[in-house]
Amino acid sequence: MNYIQILGLVAAFFTTTANIPQAIKVIKTSSTKSISALTYAMLFIGMALWVAYGIIRNDIPIILANSIAGVLCGIILVMKLLPNKKEHI
Fold first, then answer.
1. Measured between alpha carbons, how far is 77 from 81 in angstroms, rounded to an integer?
2. If you ran DSSP here, which 8-state letter would residue 19 be given?
3. How many whole angstroms separate alpha carbon 69 and alpha carbon 67?
4. Whole-model pTM above 0.85?
5. What is the 3-state secondary structure (H, E, C) of 48-87?
6. How far apart are CA 28 and CA 48, in angstroms?
7. 8 C-beta neighbours (distance < 10 Å), count
8. How far is CA 69 from CA 2, 64, 84, in A?
9. pLDDT tens-place string over residues 38-82
């Protein structure tokens, strides 16, 4: 493994796991009040495009990293878009 592959793996690790703390917080608190729906929609679309790119290039690391990150981002986005009765009280 060369330094370019290591750099790619480290980058994939951080971009894949970046949404984990936010997803956990949103799931635990059911609160998305301070989260931007537009930001998460754009992130989700970008990750979906990266997955498509990875499929076209047959690049498993890109596919896996962005699929996992996309699922986490999608969870946050869905929770943001669904009505939350607790936040409206």
1. 6
2. T
3. 6
4. no
5. HHHHHHHHHHCCHHHHHHHHHHHHHHHHHHHHHHCCCHHH
6. 26
7. 16
8. 25, 8, 24
9. 999 999 999 999 999 999 999 988 999 999 999 999 999 999 998
